[in-house]
Amino acid sequence: MTELKELNDFLSPTLIVPAGGKEYRFASVSAQTGLKIQHMMTLGFKAQAGQNITEKDIELISDDEEIDFFRAVLGDTYDELLEDGISFQGLRQLTSLVTIWTTQSFEAAQQYFLAGGRAPEPNREQRRTATRTSTAAASTTRKRASQSGTSTPKRAKATPGTKSSNTGA
Fold it and tell me: How far apart are CA 82 and CA 133, in angstroms?
């Protein structure tokens, strides 16, 4: 029989982010914050897919709650960042980084970090898949030249010293 290890030994990872010659440590978010982030991500995917979003969904986080949300995502490191004079843009980027780590993976957060806080360009396979599943791709399909399904033979090009079939010359 295999014994289980202490749950917190692997459920409490830490994300370490170098910035300004210092390393900032971010602990895993609480379950409540994680669920809220997951709900926000789901709404984002719905909006991107053109699905209906309600007024209640849009007001998921009010302007007043936004700063509290940053604090909830960044945890104890939030105060340290403010003491070190982080910019608002830096605070937003770190919140996004921890959100990606929370909802996706360390690897996805690392890609975001290495891309300078921009979503990485889709790789070739992702672009090919998107083209295959996109309805816009159907508009690039070539139309048949003939309604009967037959094609008109191509004309031969006249070369010097030969007669053209159209002109007789």
Answer: 45
